Amino acid sequence: MPTSVTAARQFLTEEAARALDEAVAVARRRSHAQTTSLHAVSALLSLPSSTLRDACTRPRSSGYPSRLQFRALELSVGVSLDRLPSSKSVEDPPISNSLMAAIKRSQASQRRHPESYHLQQLHSSNNNTNATGCSQTQSILKVELKYFILSILDDPIVSRVFGEAGFRSCDIKLALVRPPVTQVSSRFSRAHCPPIFLCNLTDSASGRVGYNLMFPRQEDGVDENCKRIREVMAKKTGKSPLLVGVCAMEALRAFTESLAKGKYGILDDDLSGLIVISIEKEINEFVIERNDEKMGLKLKEVEAVLEKGNGSGEGGVVLHFGDLKGLILDGVLGDFVTSLVLKLAGLMEVYGRRLWLVGAVDSVEIYRKFSDKFPSIEKDWDLHLLPITSSKSSFDGAYPKSSLMRSFVPFGGLFPTPSDLRSPLSGRNQSIPRCNLCNEKYEQEVDAVMKSGSTVSVADQYSENLPSWLRMAAVDTSKGEDAAKTNAGESMLSAKVLGLQKKWNDICQRLHCTPTFPKLDTNPSVSHVSIVEDPQFSTDKKQRSGDDLSINESLFPNQSPSRQVHMQQNFLQKSTASTSCTSKGRNMNFLSGLSLAQQTDKGVPCFHYPQQSLSSSSGCTPSSFVPPVTTDLKLGTIYASTSQGSITAKSLNHKENLQHFSGSVSADFDANSETTSYQFAQSSACSGPTSGQQFDLGDYKSIRKVLAEKVGWQDDAVNSVSQAVSQLRHRYQSSYGMNCKGDNWLTFFGPDRVGKKRIASALAEALFGSQECLVSVDLSSQVKVGQSNSIFECEELNGYDVISRGKTVSDLIAEELRKKPHSVVFLENVDKADYGVQHSLDLAIGTGKFPDSLGREISINNMVIIITTSAITKGNINVIREKKDIKFREERILGAKNWQMQILVGSVSDDACKRNDTGVWVTAMKEASTSISANKRKLIETAESSELEKAEAQEREHKLPRSCLDLNFPVEEEDEGDTRSGQSKSESLSESSECWLAEFFSQVYKKIHFNPFDFEGLADKIVKEISAQCQRIVGTGVVLEIDEEVMVQILAAAWFSDKKGALEDWVSKVLGRSLAEAGSKYKLSPESVVKLVACEGVVVKEQAPGIRLPAEINLK
Amino acid sequence: MGYNLLEALNVRVVGSGDRHLVLAHGFGTDQSVWQRILPLFTPSFRIILYDLVCAGSVNPDHFDFTRYTTLDPYVDDLLNILQALGVERCAYVGHSVSAMIGILASIRRPQLFSKLILIGASPRFLNDEDYHGGFEEGEIEKVFSAMEANYEAWVNGFAPLAVGADVPAAVREFSRTLFNMRPDISLFVSRTVFNSDLRGVLGLVRVPCCVIQTARDVSVPASVAEYLRTHLGGRTTVEILRTEGHLPHLTAPALLAQVLRRALAR
Q1: pLDDT tens readout for residues A969-1004
Q2: CA geometry: angle at A517 spanning A513 and A521, to 5°?
Q3: Which of B150, B206, B209, B212 has the highest number of chain A CBs within 10 A, making it the mutation to test binding with A?
């Protein structure tokens, strides 16, 4: 029920009543039905000496220029008023309830205020004497304007309007309450002191600079560059600014203009009254026409002015010599410039105190030309080089658009407007009538903007009269804060929703095209999650929590029935020992995943599962779910029992048998499954390991047998590895799984990369039943791109892979460990590990837990960790030394590429007479390639191979851009010296890591040295083999030349191949066939030479079985 | 007073070591962007982290639109922080706009910096006659108007573009920090950045620099790294990272850390 104006007026003092009258007038003008607080605000702002306006100016803390902010305020008030329903013109629109309530509030607050008691008395007495009103009004407290405004500001609508313009109503209120004198103190009393962005700490002592810098916005229109120039000029020495930069000339012009205009505030008292004299034109004439007359005159003039100033001690001259480039003619500094430079220097010397030279130069290079010619110019001219990086002129109109604020309002803390702090959920329902319509429009607009990129606003029809920067605000307010709020909340949400999807790209695309509004409503669980989530960096896993919740629920009901089934299955399972072991491994994996999740999620209301555990569980199907009972198992015991099972199996069976086991049923196999199931039952009953201790010796022997079978050439290493492992296992059993630090760590030193790896995988098979249980990471692979074109294709985890971008190596390792909790971890080239990995390894060996970069830890107590380094330690240093001159070094073999081979047929060349008995020899076809040192080769090869890999493997990732190579080459070439220095640096770097290595290795349980692989011997063997083949097929007379490259390739393949006799097979089948074909095609005579060469650049398409060599050899 | 500055810009000093290292984030991020790099350097450096005044994590009230019209006030902030912390010499790692700030700071106080490492740095984003900055004036205006029209949409479109590599986590993270910036500030800062032109002053740098550039970066073309190398006054090296995007510290922290380590060792 609106109150009449006269009734309201009686509560107000005259001043306040006048304001109310104004407000009523505003309402009438707009033919609104009622007079509201908004009208009052509008009226208050339009009053000539407005208290409100004054109050708004004072506490201005935000960075907006006040003029603009007021404009914004006026507009937002106007817009809000526009939105009120208009009605038939009323003579005096009555006071709305809200405004009336405000008046009552102000009355109450005034009454509470003790200091106003006196005034109150005064007013009532005034009323008495004036006797204007009825008797009952005399007791009414008249509200002062101040309190009236204060309570109006409390009105939510009003404070929102202020908030939109960037004001805080609480600030304004504070300013109203405090008298203007305390302006500064009110500035500082607000929450906290303003930060000192502005003061130079050293200068803050001198009040002048401090003052200047403290209130920079009073000098409206003075830009940063001018300020800097001024600062330079205020210095004692080096006070002639020479602006350097592309925009320097512009900045200089702006500065001199502002100086000439004598803009208030541009200069301090010290520097006021300066006269700008430009000799730019004169210099130009002087340089081009060699006419120094005018120049002389001008300088005289300058001198005269200075002379005058000197007498009075006032004023000064800013001598503006313009662009330094002007002094340069045709790129040379003429001698004639010297005179000018000297003249100016003379002036500076005499009138230095009151003379400033200002100038600009495009780039330092031009200035350098000057300073080269006039080395003392900097001192003589008292120059200070001032970098100028932008010009102001391009900045006009770049002032903030308040329309943009809508999207940050939801962040609450950033821009606190108390009335906005409604919860998004409750707020959504409180929509203003037009909300839906506007929503639609808004969405249309979003669509339009996204699709066409045009900025034509649909909202224009509402507020065509508004400047563009308020349009959005208008739309927003009509739509209600809530919509805007949820809008932003949703964008955060949508980011999370995105995280829930596996295919980021697709979803991302879709989201860009569709408005995100419905998301919130349809997906309440997601919104819940988003609240729980911490705003800091969140990992994938956490973001999956939404998923997990549901999966979690769906998972658990299934578990109990499947558990029983599974137990039985385990007992009766008719499968191979190895598979049962692997499935067990997976189960364990899931379990440890579970426990891990439980650990990490303590205290967090919702349950997060690591992604791995989920995926592994789904991969294993429900039947492989292990009942929670087994979580109590001592990990060490499982480790022992499972490995026993597999080892006994292995000692009983042939290796081939094991490989082709699945499906076939045999007696051996039955026995096997019995043992495993027995052990499983045992362990699930939580009993300690009772059996197996007597296997100690057998253990050693069986391991040794398996290893030796795989790596026949590393006898010593095999011996010590199997010894170490059996000791290890023995200790596990005796100490019931309690292990001491680092005792499951082995270090492999020395060369023979393949051998090391082979042993590791054999160990994985021996200990954990499958080669799958090997986590292999090459820590050096992040340095160089994996040579996937080479024979040693890195199929396993590559330290730095395209897929793994965004993760550290530690993360990758941790992830793998989590997947395979029972495994042999094989970390190659630990000497090349980056710091993060070093750190993780340190912790791992110390604590038995491997931490990833997020601090989550994975227990490694039931793993065998093998770290390798090719570094040579004292132990086997002599081994390397003695074979210094070998032809086939390991580096070279490792660099071997998987090229297609071809046979060329030619006639006997001159040098062919030195052929040896066998008729086969290895030649270096390309002298260059052999002469290049191994190091350089490597460089080139990696580059080449990565390039080719990309060209060839398009179906694979093509994320690594090709252009990087083009970029790299020139850089590398030009920085020849640099790379060299870089190498020396990396050496020094490795020195520091050497200390770490030494310390690290000292903690490792066992060090095992490897001998270099005997490539020479193998080569001889291969040559013999081939020559025998050759003789058999094409006869004795024919000479077979094998390119060294091919030889390297064959060696590498033979080294790498784990199938016995694969090479012999290849020689007899592939090579033999090709030779036979060549023989029939070319009619080989004793004079002909058959060459086996590599087709560089052509990658093998089809591989021979068991060995990485081409299945066919091209004929030419 | 100094305390206030440190507080306002969330200055943090972490790590142990006798050398100081400043990690300065770029546009659209805040200091959290370093969190994957940070642990790798804390043992050997005292690392100074701070937020640019335009970052979303800083109270927007501190952003003075009349003051931060050029990069120089940012430089003031940096130098004031270092002074307040009593740092006399430090290495500086700056990304994008902070690289520019670092360049300017090192011009003003050459003795303060032992080394500048500039990630995704560009002295000038706009193309010029004989300079390829990667952007045309018209394009920039379009970007600005897109930002004005719908900041959120712009963020969602821009973030994957800037991150470049297919790393959803990084895109998410960058979106977050980018969206945390108040849109008007964000727009203002990008205008400042695009108006800046450091080409003329590069020669004033005397501090040895290392320019780290990814193989493909939407914001910085490859030629810029070369331009920096030839024009920076100090001894300068260029490192090309074999990854993509403008934010290698988000997408390839391990790779970047390695290069950083190497660069810092020099």
Answers
A1: 433 333 333 434 444 444 444 555 667 777 777 777
A2: 135
A3: B150
